[in-house]
Design a protein that fits this description.
Helix content is about 50%, strand content about 15%. It has 13 helices and nine strands. It has two domains: about 160 residues, Rossmann fold; about 120 residues, N-(1-d-carboxylethyl)-l-norvaline Dehydrogenase, domain 2 (Orthogonal Bundle). Helix 1 packs parallel to helix 6, helix 8 packs parallel to helix 13 and helix 11 packs antiparallel against helix 12.
């Protein structure tokens, strides 16, 4: 492929995405943790984000939050100063739509295009190359980058102009977060009532309660394995972005607000680095039960 690509941010999601791209494209990789760069076979290693971005056509980002994205793109010695006119930034991070729109407007002044393209599906989908990618930005830029986006995802949808990819991701995170809470609460009730949680899962998994969140939660609870992928900390942050958007648009989101408080409580109890299903431990402690295991 002719596009030269830089990938910045080689975490749980970024590293497998970069590996898929490295199999098809000329790749330069960068992460602040220098040990991670060697895991991307065939990629050149850069000394900084700006150095990775110089001379490439497309820069992909997978970073931990809005302020980090803003700083990497617009900060002193950021990507805006390093990249050429006609190049593109694809932001796969979960970034506030307002920040994405700010970045897009600022980059346009320098002739650089921007797509907010957050992903959903978790670590396994990133490894398999089967992510869902929600893309905001100009249609012609989306069309130019479609082959790149399809390298990491099997469902790639342009959701509208700048920021709309982020809106779609926040809605997704809102629904997922509320569902994690519902599953934990329901399984705690079932267990306290004397129902075997494995039997409960088998009984409901193919009915209306069935979902990917139910499958992931049940597997984690039954095995007592709360190793991330995604974490309580990350989902708390992402629900916070959704609440901020809801305040900006004056939209009531009481269920999301409650889910945010439950994730906050799990963080305060020392469970922030565990996977999202670990929130069930709050009920376990209150009720002196164990769901699964």
């Amino acid at each position: 492929m002719s596009e030269r690509i830089a990938f910045i941010g080689l975490g749980v999601m970024g590293a497998p995405m970069a590996k898929h791209l490295a199999a098809k494209y000329d790749i330069t990789a960068f992460d602040v943790d220098k040990t991670k760069m060697g895991s991307i076979s065939g990629a050149r290693q850069a000394s900084s984000a700006a150095a990775a971005a110089r001379g490439v056509d497309i820069v992909c980002l997978s970073l931990p939050g809005s302020e980090v994205v803003r700083d990497v793109v617009l900060g002193k010695e950021g990507l805006k100063a390093a990249m050429s006119r006609g190049s593109v930034i694809i932001d796969h991070s979960t970034t506030s739509p307002t920040v994405s729109q700010e970045i897009a407007a600022s980059l346009e002044e320098s002739g650089i295009s921007f797509l907010d393209a957050p992903v959903s599906g978790g670590e396994k989908a990133a490894i398999d190359g089967t992510l869902s990618v929600m893309v905001g930005g100009k249609e012609e830029v989306f069309s130019r980058c479609l082959d790149v986006l399809k390298t990491v995802g099997t469902t790639v949808v342009r959701t509208g102009d700048s920021g709309m990819g982020g809106v779609a991701k926040l809605v997704s995170n809102l629904i997922v977060g509320i569902t994690f809470v519902a599953v934990a609460e329901g399984f705690a009730l079932g267990t306290k009532s004397g129902l075997d949680p494995k039997v409960l899962y088998e009984a409901i998994r193919n009915g209306w309660a069935g979902s990917k969140v139910l499958d992931v939660s049940a597997e984690a609870m039954l095995a007592r394995n709360f190793k991330p992928g995604g974490t309580v900390d990350i989902h708390w942050k992402d629900l916070g972005y959704a609440l901020t958007l809801a305040r900006e648009k004056d939209v009531p989101v009481p269920a999301a607000a409650l889910a945010h408080e439950i994730f906050k409580t799990a963080r305060a109890s020392g469970r922030g680095r565990l996977s999202q299903p670990a929130i069930v431990q709050l009920w376990e402690k209150l009720l002196d039960i164990q769901v699964g295991g």
